[in-house]
UniProtKB/TrEMBL annotation:
Highest rank taxon of the organism: Bacteria
Metal-binding found in the keyword field: yes
PANTHER family assigned to the protein according to its UniProt record, in alphabetical order: METHIONINE SYNTHASE
Originating organism: Thiohalocapsa halophila
Record keywords, A-Z: Cobalt, Metal-binding
Residues covered by the B12-binding domain: 233-354
Record-linked InterPro entries: Cbl-bd_cap, Cobalamin-bd, Cobalamin-bd_sf, Met_Synthase/Corrinoid, Meth_synthase_dom, Phycobilisome_asu/bsu_sf
Gene3D superfamilies per UniProt: Cobalamin-binding domain, Methionine synthase domain, Phycocyanins
Name of this protein: B12-binding domain-containing protein
Length: 354
């Protein structure tokens, strides 16, 4: 995809975001009607199938658009479109349908939403349309393979070879690697490689899930074999922010803190903001580690941090945030009020020591 400078945005007012949310159904209807006018379905079954797929795709586009508007950062939407273009190209699918959908949405919003901030919405959609229109059809990702150890690990994960993955973790630890090193230097690049293979349409979702499951088992084996430091009197809680279902990276961080002597509570996936604030109020952890995986979760993260500090004051924990999204959208992530950010376990441990 060619580079186009994203427009400058101010954070969108709540009323505009509410109007966009209320417009989802008529927007869906307009996009679906336009698609069928261009591509008449061969049967009613095809009409229903395609309409549902159009609805799902447009819902994703609108969620990413709303996140960019709420944060006042056009790069959030631009990064999503770059990712989408690479996925479509790897599946030999043209981006034209997505560009057409954004054009219909732009035209509908321009006519039907009267708001002082709608110019930013239109500018963001125009940017997306231009970027997609300039994309070269059929150009996918160039997959960079990890080093030999991580590549061997990814092969074991994809093959469902639990014993092989566990053996590689234990071998690295026998050679002197701490579990932190195994997480950052072996498992993390192996899993990133697996994710890139899915993005290139070279493996299925089922294979990706199998790899994640085997990696979790290998981590448990490594944790059981690791040396536990004596308690240091410090407390931490770890959770995936609301709507984030991806726990593996955060589990790596939580395990590392526990091995370092922290008293750790691992709360898992998709923890609602209200419940997380209540937990911190009751348990008073010194540090709260949070994981984000998708741009629409960033406004939820900002709301959570603001709520923690408003309701708990000086009793609010230190908030550190991580996930692949941190490195992909570093500028946006650093505007949300966290005390520190990390891209891997080592950075998380360093942030906690400051």
């Amino acid at each position: 995809m060619q580079t186009h400078s994203p427009p400058r945005l101010a954070p969108a007012p709540t009323r505009l975001l509410q109007r966009l949310h209320a417009a989802r159904e008529p927007l869906h209807a307009a996009v679906i009607a336009d698609y069928f006018e261009r591509h008449p379905p061969a049967s009613e079954a095809e009409r229903l199938r395609v309409a549902e797929r159009c609805r799902e795709d447009l819902s994703s586009h609108l969620a990413q658009l709303a996140a960019a508007l709420q944060l006042g950062d056009a790069e959030v939407f631009a990064a999503y479109l770059r990712w989408l273009q690479s996925v479509l190209a790897s599946r030999c699918l043209a981006v034209a349908h997505t560009a057409d959908a954004l054009k219909v949405a732009r035209d509908w919003i321009e006519v039907h939403i009267q708001d002082a901030g709608v110019a930013d919405v239109l500018a963001l959609l125009e940017h997306g349309i231009a970027a997609l229109s300039a994309a070269e059809s059929g150009v996918g990702l160039v997959l960079a393979e990890p080093g030999a150890p991580a590549l061997a690990m990814s092969q074991s994960l994809l093959a469902g070879e639990r014993a092989g993955a566990e053996a590689q973790v234990l071998a690295a630890m026998r050679e002197g690697a701490a579990l932190v090193d195994v997480s950052v230097d072996l498992l993390q690049p192996a899993l990133y490689h697996v994710g890139a293979l899915w993005q290139q349409n070279r493996i299925t979702v089922a294979q990706e899930h199998l790899a994640t499951s085997i990696a979790q088992t290998a981590m448990v084996t490594g944790f059981a074999a690791a040396d536990m430091a004596p308690p240091n009197g410090r407390t931490a809680a770890f959770a995936c922010v609301q709507d984030n279902l991806h726990t593996l990276g955060l589990r790596m961080v939580s395990d590392a803190f526990e091995l370092a002597g922290w008293d750790v509570s691992f709360l898992g996936a998709d923890v609602p903001n209200r419940d997380l604030v209540d937990f911190c109020d009751a348990e008073r952890p010194e540090l709260l580690g949070l994981s984000v995986s998708m741009p629409p979760q960033l406004p939820l993260l900002r709301a959570l941090i603001e709520r923690l500090r408003a309701e708990l004051g000086n009793a609010a924990p230190q908030v550190v945030v991580g996930g692949l999204l941190v490195s992909q959208l570093e500028a946006a992530a650093h505007t949300l009020g966290a005390d520190a950010w990390f891209r891997d376990v080592r950075e998380a441990m360093a942030a906690a020591s400051t």
